[in-house]
Amino acid sequence: MPSETADGDARQGDTVMTYVKDLGDVGRDDLGTAGGKAVGLGGLIQAGLPVPPGFVLTTAAYSEFVTGNNLDAAIRELASLPPDASPEDYEHASGQLRALFGKGTMPPAIRTELAGAYQRLGSGTSVSVRSSATAEDLPSASFAGQQETYLNVRGQDALTQAVTDCWASLWTARAMAYRAREGVQPGQVRLAVVVQQMVEAGAAGVMFTANPANGRRDQTAISAAWGLGEAVVSGTVTTDDLLVESATGRIISRQTADKEVMTVPVENGTREQPVAEARRRAPVLDDAAAAELARYGQRITDHFGSPQDVEWARAGGRFFLLQSRPITALPEPAADVPETWPVPYPNGLYFRASIVEQMPDPLSPLFADLIDGSVSRSLSALMNQALGINSLREGEVRFPTINGYAYYYYRNWAMLRMTGRTVPAMGALFRGTAHMGIAGWRDYSHPRYERVIKDWSVKPPRSSPAGSCWRGCRPFWTPEPCTTRPCSPSSRSPP
Question: Which domains does the chain possess?
Answer without folding.
Answer: 1-198 (3.30.1490.20), 200-327 (3.30.470.20), 340-435 (no CATH), 439-495 (no CATH)
